[in-house]
């Protein structure tokens, strides 16, 4: 009898597609990697599976244990899916301003939610609960298995899909796992590849992109792995998100709009480049926000 794959086998190997209309007249090739095609709908499926699987292999956790994580959304949904696959109780602590779709997706996978005021408070509470013996914190912000997931999968996929011709990699920065792991792999193949990270402009609130206070800066972050950091305004990210849906048929979230907006900005400064931006998730988890009605 032929062995059939499980849903976990379909994490990764996402499509890389070319922008057709937003790119305009240019000598550059503008590509986006569709991470919304992962089973739980975002790039965070990769580190979620990596963090839980690696912890199991080390004997740190066992099926039936309680796992705790602070999340703004996508990581929580991905962890809830992996916990469901592997048989863990999952407690997720998240800001109460997260969209209804994100909360509903987590509970659909069986996770328990605790709502707090913001991400810093969520991270503090997760560690406090662990100290009280209420579960094991995976800690995406300090867990090396987060960037390792992208070193082992996202980076190699992009290198293979572009035939090694990539010149620029653009990614929003939240936990920074995606940009850290992918940068490490791409720079090992070709040190000339430019790594571009995005953070929100002061006063902008973009789900999935953070400008962390120094005391909360993810410890997995290494500034030397990012060649350039660009500030993106909320309006610019939201406008590009809507244009991606209406002009490219790519339905995604706000941080993905920010990444593509940055790629379009960079494309005006160079020639004959091959750029790749990460489309972190799907737009359906932002519908209740009203962002697509404008």
UniProtKB/TrEMBL annotation:
Record has Transferase as a keyword: yes
Reactions that this protein is recorded to catalyse: O-acetyl-L-serine + hydrogen sulfide = L-cysteine + acetate
EC number: 2.5.1.47
The entry's keywords: Amino-acid biosynthesis, Cysteine biosynthesis, Pyridoxal phosphate, Transferase
Pfam families in the record: PALP
The protein's annotated pathway: Amino-acid biosynthesis; L-cysteine biosynthesis; L-cysteine from L-serine: step 2/2
One GO molecular-function entry: cysteine synthase activity
Domain (Tryptophan synthase beta chain-like PALP): residue spans on this chain: 8-281
Cleaved signal peptide residues: none
Superkingdom of source: Bacteria
Binding-site residues, pyridoxal 5'-phosphate: 74, 174-178, 255
GO biological process, one term: cysteine biosynthetic process from serine
Record-linked InterPro entries: Cys_synth, Cys_Synth/Cystath_Beta-Synth, CysM, P-phosphate_BS, TrpB-like_PALP, TrpB-like_PALP_sf
Modified residues (N6-(pyridoxal phosphate)lysine): 44
Cofactor field: pyridoxal 5'-phosphate
Similarity remark: Belongs to the cysteine synthase/cystathionine beta-synthase family.
Protein's name in the database: Cysteine synthase
Organism for this UniProt entry: Pseudomonas fluvialis
């Amino acid at each position: 009898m032929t062995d059939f794959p499980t849903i976990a086998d379909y994490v990764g190997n996402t499509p890389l597609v070319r922008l057709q209309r937003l790119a305009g007249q240019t000598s550059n090739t503008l590509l986006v990697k569709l991470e919304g095609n992962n089973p739980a709908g975002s790039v965070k499926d990769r580190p979620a599976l990596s963090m839980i699987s690696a912890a199991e292999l080390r004997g740190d956790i066992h099926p039936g244990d309680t796992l705790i994580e602070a999340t703004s959304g996508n990581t929580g949904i991905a962890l809830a899916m992996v916990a469901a696959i592997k048989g863990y109780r999952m407690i997720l602590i998240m800001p109460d301003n997260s969209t209804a779709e994100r909360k509903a997706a987590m509970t659909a996978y069986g996770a328990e939610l605790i709502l707090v005021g913001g991400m810093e408070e969520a991270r503090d509470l997760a560690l406090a609960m662990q100290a009280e013996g209420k579960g094991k914190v995976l800690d995406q912000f300090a867990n090396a298995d987060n960037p390792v997931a992208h070193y082992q999968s996202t980076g190699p996929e992009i290198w293979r899909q572009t035939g090694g011709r990539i010149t620029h990699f653009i990614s929003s920065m939240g936990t920074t796992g995606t940009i850290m792991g992918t940068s490490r792999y791409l720079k090992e193949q070709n040190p000339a590849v430019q790594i571009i990270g995005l953070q929100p402009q002061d006063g902008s609130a973009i789900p999935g992109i953070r400008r962390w206070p120094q005391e909360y800066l993810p410890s997995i972050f290494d500034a030397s792995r990012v060649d350039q950091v660009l500030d993106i305004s909320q309006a610019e990210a939201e406008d590009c998100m809507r244009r991606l849906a209406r002009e490219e048929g790519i339905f995604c979230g706000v941080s993905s709009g920010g990444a593509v907006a940055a790629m379009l900005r960079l494309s005006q400064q160079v020639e004959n480049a091959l750029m790749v931006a990460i489309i972190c998730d799907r737009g359906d988890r932002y519908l209740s926000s009203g962002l697509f009605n404008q």
